[in-house]
């Protein structure tokens, strides 16, 4: 089936969604996905960040769709024409969505463990505006423990439901869900239940923001100070294929491996995630692939690496340049005032 | 002309014996014994009846969309989760005459080929649930429900399900989720319930009033029903009149009477309460745009506005509104529109399910801004901010609650902007008890 997105035509299999078709074209065309998560069934359609304009429904019925449609759950039709980044209305609505998502968000990126790999941060940088219009007090929640290894900071949550679907589809028995409604809705466990099963840690990986964080990693480092390395182990429960995050020689965090869309490739068990934190537990496979535009790759590999010598060298170069050109007259003995 | 409420004041109409004496359940006999399901559907199509829950979608067309794959059960669900502020017609009908609904349910289920049907009643109305359950038991005892109804070979089981008390469960897919025992979050569409509804089976969801009207349509024929009303607005409609009228209550009107008649005629609302003047009307439940007196009585072209789907929406949302669910809220000059908009805004903030971001955050934002304006802390830019927030919610949400929340705010500012400005410019006056802005030269000004 042929579909045209932002004037680029691709051939995709029937049943593909607009989002998947756009991802086939490339990351610059793919709409932002805050709630959609390909490995999880039934996810998507909630954040409305991926709304796109369908200017022609299909070849048979080329009428435009009256409303913007969510790209992540709308299946393509033969000859559909979609406008994503070239449509003013779409971009205007996305500005609104960013504004809505940040309305009750604490904007505590400087102390948030997710900063640097946060979908909301990326979405905001790409589509948001720099000024807020709200003067209202933000809704706040107290951080709570969801079981022994996971901390929930509900203030940051955007209610994407990914963790709910993960618990439904990956773990055996979900004990948490969304309580209350409207802007008071919150992720919570059932009364006196703690999330404690072998695959519960995956809800940290699927969380697009810093609402669910790893208690063994909280406040230890910033992601861009650590170095991701692919590693594996012979684990009886899961595939054992993980990413180790090193700071110096120390493994400070273990996560599942993610693809270029930030989606987990294979879910890992809690033993791998929370307990195997020594290099000797793992077989190292090599550095993880990090997109060049990600903040995680900064300062680590290749030409743009900033070594301790680098700033000195740069400073020395600049100093020399200034030295050659600058006005030296002030160095001359000043005339005495009478 | 009364169809649904003809016998509603008869003593004991809630019992099956009295109801049958008044001709009740004759439609069931006629449909099950002499008609095929397709013939029933055809009659409903001919009647031109439009969904009475608010959207006004032709009911016969909705039925014909129902997918009918082999070996898959089909369901009829009656939406009795009437929670729209200003609307209380279904409540009245079910409370007074539960068999009217049950009769319609049997006929409609037969037409759709559903062997299990549900009535999803608003959770706050537990006594209505009891009334319905009692009536259903009576119908079972008389052989009107259960196996082999009246010897026709058609089986139907009818269940009443009380909701948990959420406005959002009146949205059809949220209702189905709730009926399945889940959190009442609306589903993404497509697939529509006609293809994948209750338990992923084809389902039709109809309003109480629409279903109740089918029995009269079967008894008297669709053509007869279509003769009532004007154009594409056929039949009668229950209107819940409330607010500053002499005689608030539920009225069954033939579609096509003028709005002026409805408000001022003694047969209906009987005019505005003594010594007061009409200021504004919310014509179809809290979510439709509010209209000032001059626009509700006459369209912008100077024609009399009629109680029909078309006439009320004449002029689009610039100068028109919608018939909606028929929650007719009349306000006189003592009503502060800002306060009224805040009340609506607070309602939608409270009732947003929180699933999709524009509605979850937007309704809360509008509520907070309206609260500030009402309490004398408004800023001049807040008015445009409200309009912009409403615009960004509208059309970008999963279900129509986003629109329902943004329309009343946008419309109030469209027609009563001066009132909002007065609140912002004169907070000390506006926050006094009972203070209302009087527009100079307006028909309602004292």
TrEMBL record, chain A:
InterPro entries: 2Fe-2S_ferredoxin-like_sf, 2Fe-2S_ferredoxin-type, NADH_UbQ_OxRdtase_ferredoxin, NADH_UbQ_OxRdtase_Gsu_4Fe4S-bd, Prok_molybdopt-oxidoreductase. Its main location: membrane. CDD domains: fer2 (cd00207). The keyword Membrane applies. One of its GO terms (molecular function) is metal ion binding. Keywords: 2Fe-2S, 4Fe-4S, Iron, Iron-sulfur, Membrane, Metal-binding, NAD, Translocase. GO terms for cellular component: membrane. Belongs to the complex I 75 kDa subunit family. This is NADH-quinone oxidoreductase subunit G. It comes from Arcicella rosea. The lineage of its organism: Bacteria, Pseudomonadati, Bacteroidota, Cytophagia, Cytophagales.
From TrEMBL, chain B:
InterPro entries: NADH-UbQ_OxRdtase_51kDa_CS, NADH-UbQ_OxRdtase_suF, Nuo51_FMN-bd, Nuo51_FMN-bd_sf, Nuop51_4Fe4S-bd, Nuop51_4Fe4S-bd_sf, SLBB_dom. One of its GO terms (molecular function) is metal ion binding. SUPFAM superfamilies: Nqo1 FMN-binding domain-like, Nqo1 middle domain-like, Nqo1C-terminal domain-like. It catalyses: a quinone + NADH + 5 H(+)(in) = a quinol + NAD(+) + 4 H(+)(out). Its cofactor is [4Fe-4S] cluster; FMN. It comes from the Bacteria. Its EC number is 7.1.1.-. It is an enzyme of class 7 (translocase). Residues 338-383 form the NADH-ubiquinone oxidoreductase 51kDa subunit iron-sulphur binding domain. Keywords: 4Fe-4S, Flavoprotein, FMN, Iron, Iron-sulfur, Metal-binding, NAD, Quinone, Translocase. NDH-1 shuttles electrons from NADH, via FMN and iron-sulfur (Fe-S) centers, to quinones in the respiratory chain. Belongs to the complex I 51 kDa subunit family. NCBIfam families: nuoF_fam, PRK13596.1. This is NADH-quinone oxidoreductase subunit F. It comes from Arcicella rosea.
């Amino acid at each position: 089936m042929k579909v045209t997105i932002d004037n680029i035509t691709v051939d995709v299999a029937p049943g593909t969604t607009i989002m998947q078709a756009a991802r086939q074209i490339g990351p610059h065309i793919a709409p932002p996905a805050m709630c959609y998560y390909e490995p999880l069934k039934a996810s998507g359609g909630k954040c409305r960040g991926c709304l796109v304009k369908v200017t022609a429904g299909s070849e048979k019925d080329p009428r435009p769709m009256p409303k913007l449609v969510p790209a992540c759950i709308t299946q393509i039709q033969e000859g559909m024409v979609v406008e994503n980044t070239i449509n003013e209305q779409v971009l205007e609505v996305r500005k609104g969505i960013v504004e809505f998502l940040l309305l009750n968000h604490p904007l505590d990126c400087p102390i948030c463990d997710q900063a640097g790999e946060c979908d909301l941060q990326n979405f905001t940088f790409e589509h948001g505006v720099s000024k807020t219009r709200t003067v209202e007090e933000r809704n706040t929640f107290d951080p709570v423990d969801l079981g022994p290894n996971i901390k929930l900071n509900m203030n940051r949550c955007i209610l994407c439901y990914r963790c709910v679907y993960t618990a439904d589809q990956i773990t055996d028995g979900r004990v948490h869900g969304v309580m209350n409604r409207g802007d008071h809705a919150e992720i919570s466990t059932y009364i006196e239940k703690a999330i404690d099963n072998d695959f519960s840690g995956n809800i940290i990986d699927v969380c697009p923001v810093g609402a669910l964080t790893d208690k063994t990693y909280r406040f230890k480092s910033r992601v861009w100070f650590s170095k991701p390395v692919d590693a594996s182990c012979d684990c009886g429960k899961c595939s054992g294929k993980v990413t180790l995050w090193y700071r110096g020689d120390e493994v400070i965090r273990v996560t599942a491996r993610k693809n270029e869309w930030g989606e987990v490739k294979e879910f890992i068990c809690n033993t791998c995630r929370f307990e195997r934190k020594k290099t000797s537990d793992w077989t190292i496979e090599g550095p993880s692939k990090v997109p060049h535009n990600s903040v995680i790759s900064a300062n680590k590999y290749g030409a743009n690496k900033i070594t301790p010598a680098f700033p000195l060298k740069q400073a020395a170069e600049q100093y020399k340049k200034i030295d050659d050109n600058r006005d030296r007259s002030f160095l001359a003995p000043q005339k005495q005032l009478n | 002309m009364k169809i649904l409420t003809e016998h509603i004041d008869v003593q004991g109409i809630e019992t099956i014996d009295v109801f049958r004496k008044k001709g009740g359940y004759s439609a069931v006999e006629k449909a099950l014994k002499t008609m095929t399901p397709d013939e029933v559907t055809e009659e409903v199509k001919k009647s031109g009846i439009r969904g009475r829950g608010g959207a006004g979608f032709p009911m016969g067309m909705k039925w014909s969309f129902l997918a009918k794959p082999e070996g898959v059960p089909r369901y009829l669900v009656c939406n009795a989760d009437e929670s729209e502020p200003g609307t209380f017609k279904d409540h009245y009908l079910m409370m007074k005459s539960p068999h009217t609904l049950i009769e319609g349910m049997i006929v409609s289920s037969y037409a759709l080929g559903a062997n299990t049907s549900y009535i999803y009643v608003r959770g706050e109305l537990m006594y209505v649930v009891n009334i319905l359950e009692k009536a259903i038991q009576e119908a079972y005892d008389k052989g009107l429900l259960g196996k082999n109804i009246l010897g026709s070979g058609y089986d139907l089981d009818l269940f009443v399900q009380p909701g948990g008390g959420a406005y959002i469960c009146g949205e059809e897919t949220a209702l189905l989720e709730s009926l399945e025992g889940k959190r009442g979050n609306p589903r993404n569409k497509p697939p529509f319930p006609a293809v994948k509804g209750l338990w992923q089976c084809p389902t039709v969801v109809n309003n109480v009033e629409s279903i109740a009207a089918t029995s009269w349509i079967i008894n008297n024929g669709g053509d007869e029903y279509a003769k009532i009303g004007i154009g594409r607005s056929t039949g009668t409609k229950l209107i819940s009149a409330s607010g500053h009228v002499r005689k608030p209550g539920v009225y069954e009107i033939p579609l096509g009477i003028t709005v002026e008649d409805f408000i001022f005629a003694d047969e209906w609302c009987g005019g505005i309460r003594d010594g007061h003047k009409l200021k504004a009307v919310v014509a179809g439940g809290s979510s439709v745009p509010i209209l000032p007196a001059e626009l509700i009585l006459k369209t912008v072209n100077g024609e009399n506005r009629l109680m029909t789907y078309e006439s009320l929406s004449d002029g689009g949302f610039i100068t028109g509104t919608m018939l909606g669910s028929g929650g007719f809220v009349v306000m006189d000059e003592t009503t502060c529109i800002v306060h009224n908009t805040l009340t609506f805004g607070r309602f939608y903030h409270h009732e947003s399910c929180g699933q999709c971001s524009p509605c979850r955050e937007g309704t809360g934002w509008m509520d907070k801004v309206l609260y500030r304006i009402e309490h004398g802390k408004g800023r001049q830019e807040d008015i445009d901010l409200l309009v912009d927030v409403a615009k960004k919610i509208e059309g970008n949400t999963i279900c129509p609650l986003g629109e329902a929340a943004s329309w009343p705010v946008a419309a109030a500012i469209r027609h009563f902007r001066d009132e909002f400005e007065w609140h912002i410019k004169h907070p000390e006056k506006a926050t006094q008890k009972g203070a209302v802005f009087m527009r100079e030269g307006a028909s309602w000004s004292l």
